[in-house]
Design goal:
The protein has 266 residues and is mainly beta. The protein has three helices and 19 strands.
Length: 266
């Protein structure tokens, strides 16, 4: 049985909801426009579902030359933020990285702050910002947006099924926030891959993805489910970390599509 791409996902705003795609355009950034927007606190520190699980209830997608946000639980709680509204230069922190960004203005800040219950700002990473991927795993010039550390995250549908079986209920793959989901491989076969090819693009699998509390967030009601992390520890603990999925760096540009064959290069 061949291995194929069975899911493609984009996350326009870091830690807000993602959405499925039929085609992902791969640019120098990685997935086109993925996590180019970021929610920060008043000090410019990045905020995610780790601190605010309720972020999982806000949808985000690109529409035209801007981004549309909406809250799944409140009728008419929506806002459109043009990219052009992000004009004020600022510095934001993502882990240890200080990144040049553009603040998207008071209207977007007020909308997010009122829904999430604390003072927040929405920021955009412009084209001229270059955030280098950790050189321990990357080449000079490899860039990443506001994603935690790498342009792509790969997950295996069989790995998720095995995890769900151990947990006793079906898990939504979006809890793990992959960009690419593959089917047709054995569970956790991805642990042993170093390079794959999808279409005309090759990807280096550079680091297993260490997981935090985000997969414990129930995407339906934003509650935390402690047994999810307990099962991760049982199945996937290696030293002090638990791992699920593989971080990847792309070695080319173009389009990848649902149904594309995944070839194991090494």
């Amino acid at each position: 049985m061949s291995i194929q791409v069975s899911g493609l996902y984009s996350y326009p705003v870091k830690s807000l909801r993602g959405h499925a795609q039929e085609v992902t355009r791969v640019t120098s950034w990685g997935p086109d426009r993925d996590r180019r927007w970021l929610v920060v606190d008043e000090a410019g520190q990045f905020i995610t579902q780790r601190q605010l699980p309720k972020m999982s209830r806000i949808g985000a997608e690109y529409r035209g030359e801007g981004i549309y946000l909406w809250h799944l639980d409140y009728a008419n709680a929506e806002i459109y933020v043009p990219v052009a509204s992000a004009q004020t230069s600022c510095k934001v922190m993502v882990w240890a990285d200080s990144c040049a960004a553009l603040d998207a203005g008071d209207e977007a800040a007020s909308w997010l702050s009122s829904l999430l219950g604390k003072p927040l700002r929405l920021c955009y990473m412009p084209e001229q910002t270059h955030r280098q991927v950790d050189m321990q795993f990357a080449q000079q010039g490899d860039r990443v947006s506001f994603a935690d550390g790498f342009p792509f995250l790969l997950c295996n549908a069989a790995s998720l099924r095995l995890f769900s079986a151990g947990l006793g209920r079906e898990m939504d793959i979006l809890r793990f926030r992959p960009n690419i989901v593959i089917s047709g491989a054995e569970a956790f076969a991805e642990d042993n891959w170093q390079r794959i090819r999808i279409g005309d693009i090759e990807f280096d699998l550079v680091k297993p993805c260490a997981r935090c509390a985000i997969p414990t967030v129930n995407l339906v009601d934003a509650s935390r489910e402690a047994d999810v992390f307990m099962m991760l520890r049982k199945l996937r603990q290696r030293g002090d970390e638990v791992y699920f999925g593989q971080n990847m760096i792309h070695r080319g540009q173009g389009n990848i599509r649902l149904g594309d064959e995944v070839k194991i290069v090494s």
